[in-house]
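Protocol step 4 of 5: obtain the predicted structure for the target chain.
Materials: sequence only (see below). No template structures provided, no constraints applied. The aim of this step is simply to have a reference model before the mutagenesis design in step 5. Sequence pasted as it appears in the construct record:
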Amino acid sequence: MKKSAKAFHTGTVKKSMVIKAPKQKVWRKISNIVGLPSWLVDCKETVFLSKKKRGVGAIREITFNDGNTIEEHVVAWKDGEYFTYVATEGLPLRAYVATISIKPKSRNSVQMTWESYVNSKKMTEKEFLEFLVFMGTFYETSLSNLKEILEK
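Step 4 output (structure tokens):
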């Protein structure tokens, strides 16, 4: 049996969902970048690591139920539309850049999209593909949680 070689891999994960809630209500919820425990899967706590709480330069640390922590820095922000962040610690990746965006579909619904670009640390192709599937499921389940909260 041939052992697969470990290498760097690049990929993207993108999930979208229509949320039947006014744009401002959705933006208020997602732009509170430490408000994740209410909707992010397995999120135990999120705290600010920066004095800045919104916009470019805001830094958060997310602690998951399994004890893993991820540090994220906001690198782009357009009020009411999107923000982009990079993870600097805590993932089996050399690069992780993600954008969460909302676009109005009607007066009382938005299309929310969570999209990321990833570049792995050395792993097999199988490990990387499994990681991408995990991320996709994580995004989808988290968006479903958010949808359920916002549509109440």
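Step 4 remarks: The radius of gyration is 16 Å. The chain has a mean pLDDT of 96.
Proceed to step 5.
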